[in-house]
């Protein structure tokens, strides 16, 4: 354990009973969790796969894994650090079949759910909620409601039971009776005098309450009909999911709960496996997630929950304390540790945030347990922080002053990097003005938005081109294409096109065809574009949409143009391209006809649903840049200087948006506090924003954001005593629209940056081999991550690997299974193995076949036939002598020379007392052992070392298995071979990191045999 204070050390070393860690902002909660994991492994109390660490977001899980990487000296295998949903998905993929779920279920995102309902809307039999106009918001409201029901572990059957019981009870009450419980949720009548002025309340001893809005028969009947309609809609939706072999995110948790309840042997298996369970961000877990935690609680009571109710910003209806209070009730013998020593913020920033959050009392843990919990944080830093309110005359002036302050701080503090600055906004749409101004100012920035992919310029260009191929007369698309820089049309030329099109009532495509023959200036450029369109029009009739996109990027030179942008821009553009191509591949995987036309139809439907395209956010990736992000996205991050923008009424705090279809209170299991739940959640969000700042905290606002009404400063500025209630407008700034100061002061700083890219956090053999072959190719593949079209031999190789993985998985199951026939006689392993026939293998091959990137049907069928022949020979070779397989796709992380490497072993066979055999499949033909180069052997030597150091097993043989002629090369590394491999790893990583620092990735030769020298675009890297 390293540099822990007494409370942190106590939390790390606590075992034997449930533990609640209350960890304030900046007190090192992630350090405590990861140190606890490392300590448990080092003390021999648990192996890496016997610890389960669950958290709320992928970002938090990633950070926790990275911290664990640095703590464990030799590496590890199968460390279960993941989100609740990832954990549940993994469990259901292994055991979903035990409750009737397909193991290859599809996980639908929000659009997938929306499209499923829209396609089947007539099946919902709606009356009360029949949409009169736009269906988009209505479908979204339904999905939001179903999601809430799943958070509360309410099944469609539960909802229908509630609706039916409610109808019976209300009928009884309206007829003048009272209810008395009889049996299991059955009721009997007792005559009482009816009073129409009395609002109905919860009836003692009944399961549900009667809504107090029922004041007459007509109102009651309408409300019951509404609830019954929603319950039926929920049932229909869930059945549609099952009919389509699909789950949504809420299903992952609920079906896992069902699996554990109905199959106790499976639950017992995981309870036995996980000796320690740790839960991060416990305050944000919902009801069903907490139910899952309780079911998994280890036999030794080694359950640790880490929470801070003041940072709860994802909970329903402000129930920030619900699970924490329930934890203490469920585990009365649990211990609590409060972390108060802060290692992030200046004390005056902490005091400001602490005093402000007191306004949420009494709905805070500290107030509920005054004698138990003190959450006033004490910093371990000595410097006093800067707290300042920036007031502009209007929105543009506010933005200008914020950027001016950033430039001033950067120039004043030479030790500060651009990464030390963050502009926080309450919502994504508030970031636009800041992003535009930073662009104009020339300051390096990144807008960390998880949405908006489809509005990025390069993606809009691609979509426009696809639309043009689908319909030549789509003039809006043609206009966008004409503006793509690689086609080199000037603004004046495009104006000529537009004027002629209007004059002749032509489409822009028709206009271009006309001008190709009559315009000397534009004719050649137009002919190049029209020729491209003609060629790609042929493609869309036979090729998948991804192949058409790569044809555009390659044939037009657009990809080379994007690659040749300045480094920051190029990397961001490639990130956007890869995200869009990932979306395209998802479409192709789910579609029997992955044509351009069908993709555009689905994309239009997605946009109709309100989706904007998702984009993965990595706040630490890339070079030094100012971060612009929402407060929600900033949770868990810290910056030296934080600017909380647009602090005006109705923006922060926002107005409350209630659920369009609310969940009946009777079905809610949460402990919901009294008070203004929305305002309290907004305060917690503001608390999170303030506690991101280490040294400088700035609040900006302006009274004029456009429109007729002036803006008031946020009530939070007043509640925090940052401004008075009579705040006045400031004198206008005559230079408010002048950005010369940024250009003058910031650009020299940008040019002084020596390192554009960050080195990887960990490496793979493939990365090292790539750099060894050609540093420039490494740069394109692993730094810029330029998307590349697939190759047919990659598709074939992947299909072969996947087939073998599935086949040997069945073999492993047969070798470990204990089955009985109808007469109770145990089947022998040989009998089970005999069930694995050549037909089984060939069926798995057909299921695993990947249809992509073959030149034509003839080539595709040739490879398909070759694969069948390979597997027939493979089966004949091994029949009756199958290996004892103990591992498939075995992942590991291994530390060499202070660097972390990761890998995945295709197959591990048990060789008894001799040890194990490690097998790696190669799709090609055998090579003589003496012709296999050292760097090719290094892959298996790396696996050998990982087996010894991480998996703790003894390799007896290393094997390259060549599928094309079913032959193998066997060897085993001696100590000198392992040492040579380690030296190669360390040397290659040092070369990579030197290239990154220098910004120089040369070709390996001239001309380079590993990449096309004509594609050279790396001159800008000579910084």
From TrEMBL:
Keyword terms: ATP-binding, DNA damage, DNA repair, DNA-binding, Exonuclease, Helicase, Hydrolase, Isomerase, Nuclease, Nucleotide-binding
InterPro entries: DExx_box_DNA_helicase_dom_sf (IPR013986), DNA_helicase_UvrD-like_C (IPR014017), DNA_helicase_UvrD/REP (IPR000212), P-loop_NTPase (IPR027417), PDDEXK-like_dom_sf (IPR011604), PDDEXK_AddAB-type (IPR038726), Restrct_endonuc-II-like (IPR011335), UvrD-like_ATP-bd (IPR014016)
UvrD-like helicase ATP-binding domain location: 2-346
Domain of life: Bacteria
EC number in record: 5.6.2.4
Molecular function GO terms recorded: 3'-5' DNA helicase activity; ATP binding; DNA binding; exonuclease activity
Binding site for ATP: 23-30
GO annotations of cellular component type: cytosol; DNA helicase complex
GO biological process: recombinational repair
Family recorded in the similarity comment: Belongs to the helicase family. UvrD subfamily.
PANTHER family: DNA 3'-5' HELICASE, UVRD / RECB / PCRA DNA HELICASE FAMILY MEMBER
The protein's name: DNA 3'-5' helicase
High-level lineage: Bacteria, Candidatus Falkowiibacteriota
């Amino acid at each position: 354990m390293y540099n822990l204070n007494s409370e942190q050390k106590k939390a790390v070393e606590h075992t034997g009973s449930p533990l609640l860690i209350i960890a304030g902002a900046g007190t090192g909660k992630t350090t405590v969790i990861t140190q606890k994991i490392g300590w448990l492994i080092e003390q021999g109390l648990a192996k890496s796969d016997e610890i389960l660490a669950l958290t709320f977001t992928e970002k938090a899980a990633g950070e926790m894994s990275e911290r664990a990487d640095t703590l464990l000296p030799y590496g590890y295998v199968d460390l279960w650090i993941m989100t609740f949903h990832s954990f549940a998905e993994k469990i259901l993929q292994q055991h979903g079949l035990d409750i009737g779920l397909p193991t290859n279920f599809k996980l639908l995102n929000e659009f997938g759910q929306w499209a499923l309902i829209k396609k089947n809307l007539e099946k919902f039999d709606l009356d009360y909620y029949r949409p009169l106009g736009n269906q988009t918001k209505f479908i979204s409201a339904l999905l939001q409601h179903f999601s809430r029901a799943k958070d509360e572990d309410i099944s469609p059957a539960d909802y229908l039971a509630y609706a039916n019981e409610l109808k019976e009870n209300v009928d009884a009450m309206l007829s003048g009776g009272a209810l008395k419980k009889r049996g299991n949720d059955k009721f009997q009548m007792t005559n009482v005098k009816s009073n129409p002025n009395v609002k109905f309340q919860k009836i003692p001893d009944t399961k549900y309450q009667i809504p107090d809005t029922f004041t007459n028969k007509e109102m009651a009947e309408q409300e019951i009909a509404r609830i019954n309609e929603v319950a039926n809609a929920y049932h229909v939706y869930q059945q549609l999911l099952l009919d389509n072999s699909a789950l949504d995110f809420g299903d992952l948790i609920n079906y896992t709960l069902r699996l554990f309840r109905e199959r106790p042997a499976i639950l017992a298996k995981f309870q036995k496996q996980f000796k320690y369970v740790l839960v991060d961000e416990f305050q944000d877990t919902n009801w069903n997630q907490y139910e899952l935690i309780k079911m998994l609680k280890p036999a030794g009571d080694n359950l640790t929950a880490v929470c801070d109710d003041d940072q709860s910003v994802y909970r329903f209806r402000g129930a920030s304390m619900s699970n924490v209070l329930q934890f203490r009730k469920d585990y009365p013998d649990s211990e609590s540790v409060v972390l108060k020593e802060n290692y992030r913020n200046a004390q005056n920033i902490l005091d400001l945030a602490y005093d402000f959050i007191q306004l949420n009392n009494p709905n805070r843990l500290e107030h509920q347990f005054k004698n138990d919990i003190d959450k006033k944080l004490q910093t371990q830093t000595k410097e006093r922080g800067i707290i300042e309110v920036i007031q502009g005359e209007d929105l543009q002036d506010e933005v200008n002053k914020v950027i001016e302050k950033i430039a001033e701080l950067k120039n004043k503090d030479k030790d500060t990097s651009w990464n030390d600055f963050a502009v926080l906004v309450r919502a994504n749409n508030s970031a636009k003005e800041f992003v535009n101004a930073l662009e104009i100012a020339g300051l390096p920035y990144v807008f960390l938005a998880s949405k908006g992919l489809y509005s990025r310029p390069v993606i809009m260009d691609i979509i426009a081109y696809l639309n043009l191929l689908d319909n030549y007369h789509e003039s809006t698309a043609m206009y966008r294409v004409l503006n793509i820089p690689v086609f080199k049309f000037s603004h004046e030329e495009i104006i000529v096109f537009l004027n002629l099109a209007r004059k002749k009532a032509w489409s822009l495509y028709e206009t271009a065809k006309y001008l190709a023959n009559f315009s000397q200036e534009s004719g050649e450029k137009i002919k190049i574009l029209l020729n491209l369109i003609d060629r790609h029009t042929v493609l869309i009739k036979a090729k998948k949409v991804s192949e058409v996109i790569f044809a555009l990027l390659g044939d037009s030179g657009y990809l080379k143009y994007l690659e040749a942008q300045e480094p920051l821009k190029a990397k961001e553009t490639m990130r956007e391209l890869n995200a869009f191509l990932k979306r395209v591949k998802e479409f192709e995987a789910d579609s029997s006809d992955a044509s351009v036309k069908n993709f555009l139809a689905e994309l239009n439907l997605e946009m109709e649903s309100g989706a904007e395209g998702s984009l993965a956010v990595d706040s630490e990736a890339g070079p030094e840049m100012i971060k612009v992000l929402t407060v929600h996205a900033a949770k868990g991050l810290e910056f030296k200087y934080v600017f909380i923008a647009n602090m005006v009424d109705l923006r922060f705090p926002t107005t409350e948006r209630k659920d369009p279809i609310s969940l009946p209170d009777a079905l809610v299991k949460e402990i919901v506090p009294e008070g203004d739940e929305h305002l309290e959640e907004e305060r917690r969000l503001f608390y999170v924003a303030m506690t991101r700042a280490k040294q400088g905290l700035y609040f900006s606002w302006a009274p004029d954001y456009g429109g007729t009404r002036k803006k008031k400063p946020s009530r939070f500025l007043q509640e925090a005593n940052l401004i008075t209630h009579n705040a006045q407008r400031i004198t206008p700034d005559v230079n408010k629209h002048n950005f010369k100061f940024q250009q003058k002061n910031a650009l020299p700083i940008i040019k002084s940056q020596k390192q554009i890219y960050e080195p990887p956090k960990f490496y793979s053999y493939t990365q090292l081999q790539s750099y060894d072959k050609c540093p420039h190719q490494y740069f394109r593949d692993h730094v810029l991550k330029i998307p590349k079209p697939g190759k047919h031999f990659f598709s074939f190789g992947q299909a072969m690997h996947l087939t073998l993985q599935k086949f040997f998985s069945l073999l492993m199951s047969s070798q470990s299974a204990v089955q009985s026939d109808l007469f109770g006689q145990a089947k022998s392993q040989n009998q089970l193995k005999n069930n694995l026939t050549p037909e089984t293998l060939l069926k798995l091959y057909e299921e695993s076949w990947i249809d992509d990137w073959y030149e034509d049907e003839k080539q595709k069928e040739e490879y398909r036939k070759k694969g069948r022949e390979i597997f027939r020979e493979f089966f004949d070779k091994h029949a009756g002598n199958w290996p004892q397989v103990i591992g498939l796709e075995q992942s590991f992380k291994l530390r060499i020379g202070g660097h972390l490497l990761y890998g995945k072993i295709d197959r591990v066979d048990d060789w008894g007392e001799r040890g194990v055999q490690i097998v790696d499949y190669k799709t090609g033909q055998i090579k003589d052992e003496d012709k296999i180069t050292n760097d090719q052997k290094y892959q298996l030597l790396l696996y050998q070392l990982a087996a010894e150091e991480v998996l703790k097993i003894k390799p007896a043989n290393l094997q390259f298995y060549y599928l094309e002629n079913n032959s193998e090369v066997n060897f085993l590394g001696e100590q000198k071979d392992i040492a040579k491999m380690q030296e190669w790893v360390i040397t290659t990583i040092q070369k990579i990191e030197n290239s990154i620092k220098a910004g120089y990735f040369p070709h390996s030769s001239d001309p380079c045999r590993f990449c096309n020298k004509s594609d050279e675009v790396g001159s800008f890297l000579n910084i």
